[in-house]
Amino acid sequence: MNKHFKDAWYYLRRSGSHLRHGVQAELDTGEQKFRKWTGRERNSESEPTRREKIRTNLRNAERTAKRRSQKVRRRSRAAKERSRDVVRDARKRIRMS
Description:
Elements: H1 2-38, H2 50-96
């Protein structure tokens, strides 16, 4: 039952995030049109500096490493549980014989 609640919370947070991004995208296009009509257009954003690119790459690498390590941990736990079950079943079979 707890797993279902975790899944529900995950999807709720994810849908909220998508909603926020969608609303922001809609508001940005409206803001751009309004600024164009009023003559207050913003300057186009310049390209990120080398330092900003490196920071972004490092953040992405950190997130990727964290995600991969969590995946490996989950897999190792599952393998450990499976091996316990196999040993338990083997012991039961030996006792029955």
